[in-house]
Design goal:
The protein contains 4 helices and 4 strands. With 154 residues, it is of the alpha+beta class. Helix 2 runs parallel beside helix 4 (105-123) and helix 3 packs across helix 4.
Length: 154
């Protein structure tokens, strides 16, 4: 990704974050399905671009790439990756990139569906997401676990 593409992506991300917060404040829970759909679709699109960087498009490769991207912000404290697990947490006190502090779990889940879309594009299958802790619910950090849905059969 060129620096110009990265800046465009950051501006798009920030604009979508602001729009999502505004729509949620105005329409509440009724807006959640729309917010989730838009973030998920953005994840599908970004996943299509990201997968070009990979020669292997399995869950672990996708998780490593996404961890690398999240780590660039310097907010990752812990990260565990395996063939069936991507588990990370941010440093305590790290601000939410989307500005969702104390906005609630539903809006957090809707926005974080961007990563589910990325995994779907890169790997070709759905992942489950478990938000263990979130700045959006008042926690001092975020902790999120992703697992391939197909791993339930292991």
């Amino acid at each position: 990704m060129t620096e110009k593409d990265e800046k465009r992506t950051n501006i798009t991300y920030e604009a979508l974050a602001l729009m999502s917060r505004s729509v949620y404040e105005k329409y509440g829970d009724d807006a959640i399905p729309t917010i989730r759909d838009v973030w998920y679709k953005m994840g599908l699109d970004s996943g299509d671009r990201l997968k070009k960087k990979l020669t292997t498009r399995d869950f672990k490769s996708a998780a490593n790439l996404l961890a690398e991207i999240v780590s660039k912000a310097g907010s990752i404290e812990k990260c565990q990756i395996s063939d069936t697990l991507f588990h990370f947490s941010t440093k305590p006190g790290t601000r939410c990139d989307v500005g969702l502090e104390d906005k609630g779990r539903k809006i957090c889940e809707a926005v974080m569906s961007v990563h589910q879309g990325q995994f779907k594009s890169i790997c070709g299958f759905d992942v489950e997401m478990d938000i263990v802790r979130s700045r959006a619910t008042g926690a001092d950090c975020c902790e999120i676990i992703f697992r391939p849905l197909e791993s339930k059969n292991y």
